[in-house]
Every structure is written in structure tokens, then in C-alpha cells.
Amino acid sequence: MAVISSSSSFCLISFSNATPPSSTAPLSLTIFSSPKPKPPPYLVLRPKKPQHTIRSVSFFPGFSTKSKDAKTLKEELYQAIASLDRGAEASPEDQEYVDQLARQLESVNEIKEPLKSNLLNGKWELLYTTSQSILKTKRPKFLRPNGKIYQAINTDTLRAQNMETWPFFNQATANLVPLNSKRVAVKFDYFRIANLIPIKSPGSGRGQLEITYLDDELRISRGDRGNLFILKIVDPSYRVPL
Questions:
Q1: pTM of the model
Q2: What does the alpha-carbon distance between residue 169 and residue 135 come to, in Å, rounded to a whole number?
Q3: How confident is the model at residue 167 (pLDDT cuts 50, 70, 90)?
Q4: Looking at the DSSP assignment, which residues form a beta bridge with residue 26?
Q5: Which residues of 183-214 are buried (b: 16+ CB within 10 A; e: fewer)?
Q6: From residue 83, how far is each of 13, 127, 141, 178 by CA, in Å?
Q7: pLDDT value, residue 140
Q8: Angle made by CA atoms 163, 229, 235, in degrees to the nearest 5
């Protein structure tokens, strides 16, 4: 989308002396005059061709067409998700805005092979997601996970763990199967209800996860169903149970 602005100006043409009637030089400008008294010649004003200027516009508030560094983009992302209750309070417009910020961060990602990076290891707190299986927004609020939610990954053992806190304290552990240097297949093996009752996975608990942005404090991942996950590191030394 472009907003086009234009400006019109006029050029003023004048003569220092009138051309005598006997002159045969061609005139490029028509001069009108009265017989008595003879006034100064009227000047015909010719408008210049309008000059058009194209100015870029943004489709989302706060965006600029100029490139931004990762630090600036992260600050904007943190600000955008701060009041969204991990995504549960996000409108479709909020989701689109957060997704655009995440994509801008992904475009400046310096860790091209996150599965080979030690920065991926540890316990991460979930800050934002679009996953309804986590948010459970169709349930009454008191039946949703209201405490913090964590995910841990260890690349050396290819293990992962999801952990809810208040009020349910449910957990799930999974094996990771690398598909490439940034995407894994996730195969859940055990679920733990209220952190007490272990239940073996029936085999249907599977999915894929791609790490699209990674640095020493922030991780962005995308699931195979199009869900977005934004997490921050809280304990780099955490080990997932084998």
C-alpha cells in the first residue's frame, strides 16, 4: 500500500521589453492588451508538471520498513505480549501483530543450527502461545492452567519435558528425533497427572517442533499445526529425566 502526495507550482514568465510590432521574431507566449491606455502585457501562467512522491506506509502499528536489530525487536515483542496472559487474552489482531514481530526476529536469527547449540539446553518458561491445547480458553478460567508453564530440552540426550504448575501440576516427557538441524519429531512417552500418577503414552502423542529463533535468553518455536511458542530461559542447567 502506498500513499501518494503531490504538489503543484506555477512558473512566472515576464518580459523586460515588449517586442515591436515590426519584429519578425516568433513569440512563444500570447500577449493580450487594451487599445487605450496600453497596459502592461498580461502574463499567461503555465503550471509545471506535478511531481509525485511515494511514501511507504506500515500495515501494523509500530512497524517500520527499516531493518531493526534483534534487541529492538525483542523489546517490541516483550511489550506486545506483556498483557496477553500467555496468549489467552489475545485477539486475532494481537495474534497477527505478535506473529509479524516473531517473523521479523526469525529473519535476523544468527543460530542457523539450533539443535547443535548449547543455548537450546535447559528449562524455558512459556511467555506466549497460540496453542489451544495449552491455553484451553474454552474452559472457565479456574479450570485453566493459571501458574507458570515450562518446557525443558536436552540436546545431548534428545529429551524434552513439559511442565504445568498451579493448579494441576501436570507433566509430560518425550523423546526427540531430529529431522534436520532445527526441526524435531516429538514422541511423548509418559504423562504425569498432578505430578504423582504416571501414565504411559498410548502412542498417539506425537508432533513436530521447529526452533526458528534462538539466543541466550529467548526462543521462538513453531509446531506442525501452525502454533507459535515464545519462551525465555530460566535455568540453563536443568536436566530432563531419562
A1: 0.72
A2: 15
A3: very high
A4: none
A5: bbebebeebbeeeeeeeeeeeeeeeebbbbbb
A6: 63, 11, 16, 35
A7: 92
A8: 50
